[in-house]
Amino acid sequence: MNSNEVKEKVIDESAQGSTLALEENKKNTRKLYIESYGCQMNFSDSEIVASILAKEGFNTTQELAEADLVLVNTCSIREKAELTVRKRLEKFNAVKKVNPNMKVGVLGCMAERLKSKFLEEEKIVDMVVGPDAYKDLPNLIEEIDEGRNAVNVILSKDETYGDVAPVRLNSNGVTAFVSITRGCDNMCTFCVVPFTRGRERSRDPRSIIEEVNDLWNRGFKEITLLGQNVDSYLWYGGGLKKDYEKATEMQKATSVNFAKLLELCALAQPKMRIRFSTSNPQDMTLDVIETMAKFENICNYIHLPVQSGSNRILKAMNRLHTREEYFELIDNIKRILPDCAISQDMISGFPTETEEDHQDTLSLMKHVKYDFGFMFAYSERPGTLAARKLVDDVPKADKKRRLTEIIDLQQKHSLYRTQQHVGKTEEVLIEGPSKKSDQHWMGRNSQNTVVVFPKENYKVGDFVIVQIEDCTSATLLGTAVKLSKNN
Ligand code: SAH
Ligand code: F3S
What we know:
Elements: H1 3-27, E1 30-36, H2 40-54, E2 58-60, E3 69-74, H3 79-98, E4 103-107, H4 108-114, H5 117-121, E5 127-129, H6 137-145, E6 150-152, E7 175-179, E8 181-182, H7 193-197, E9 201-202, H8 205-217, E10 222-226, E11 234-235, H9 249-253, E12 256-257, H10 258-268, E13 273-277, H11 286-294, E14 301-303, H12 311-316, H13 323-336, E15 341-348, H14 355-368, E16 372-377, H15 385-389, H16 396-419, E17 425-433, E18 440-444, E19 450-454, E20 463-471, E21 475-483
Parallel strand pairs: 1-2, 1-3, 3-4, 4-5, 5-6, 7-10, 10-13, 14-15, 15-16, 19-21
Antiparallel strand pairs: 8-9, 11-12, 17-18, 17-20, 18-19, 20-21
Helix pairs in contact: 8-10, 10-11, 11-13, 14-16
The structure holds S-adenosyl-L-homocysteine and FE3-S4 cluster (F3S).
The site of FE3-S4 cluster has 10 residues, from helix 7.
């Protein structure tokens, strides 16, 4: 028997094995209903959870009423996000009255923040699982099956779930998230994430590339590399980012930074569109921008949260750059990538923020003229440095008015930016039907702007050249000209 035959035999057996296993699973198939709130990372994590539980015989369902296990992947970033989850738990409570065998677990940042307190505060909850403990879910579920409550909120030094192939949930089959780092070491004073997601660590580039290749082979056309702070990605054989100094010379010499990882992804699948999020300005380097310029398949879009335009507030937020350094970065981006879209996150009413600070924010926005923005009123989060050291002293009405001014200005800039696309022909990746009309496709250009155009004979997943004819502040409208050479 040559080695090929051996291989085939092995494959045959494993195929049989997996059919048997599937049948076995089907027998005890239980239904998992999973709901996610908050950042893209949470949605990506839910796909990891679904994958871990698929091996335990759980199939996902969209019907809450028929679920054996309900999992809610929670967000703590602002108070409102937590209140939304608590409201959802009330709804689950009502469903449980009809289906008393249903178990409820909370995952994610609220689980990590509240720990076993969650069980006391919300009687409906059977299980509390932090973001680094998902591999323990099979054991925890066994616990709750036996009628005990279960909690695991241990944060890890090296868990990246690099060995778990995510089950794509609610997928359009075209775009997917690939997580590359976990945790955050930045300690912005307003932010709860370093407490809920632990210290920063990077995932093995080989497992990232494997996932990218696998997605391409399954027909996906665009990936977004995900992390709280992707530019700080650093692989040196595993371990926390903060322990890099302790790495051997060999490990340092063969380490992979974010620019290198981008290049590896771009080369692995030259036709796959590559995006990434989020970039913290203090960690974004010129070599990342230059790598973006070098590869056509890396999209011209950077999400570059700034939070405030005032140097004094930036310092109080522990954002480790000044307004001037931020402008320098923006100028470099625009010089190297003239077509690059830039978006922001902004917070109004951080403690001690004055009208003058707020005006600095507006003037910074006028300088950059962001393509999009995600804007929030400051929400004090328990345990953060700002909560411990500063008084939440900006009156609610001022926070709200400043936020409205920021949003209104962003709206103007968004319109200004979309207008610059009118008259151009741009490559658009079709993601699915337009929400407003089933006669139209919806897709995005390289800059991440939504483009809507008549379907004609094009299909989901096609790269299409679209003539842009009109726009609103959020959407470009056009007509497809032809298929792109990139298909
Ligand atoms: N890692 C990202 C941010 C993640 S949180 C970064 O580099 O900035 C997403 C956004 O939520 C933040 O950019 C910030 O604008 C907002 N945010 C975080 N904590 C907040 C708080 N306590 N109140 C209001 N907005 C907050
Ligand atoms: Fe939060 Fe700042 Fe990290 S906003 S996620 S602490 S970069």
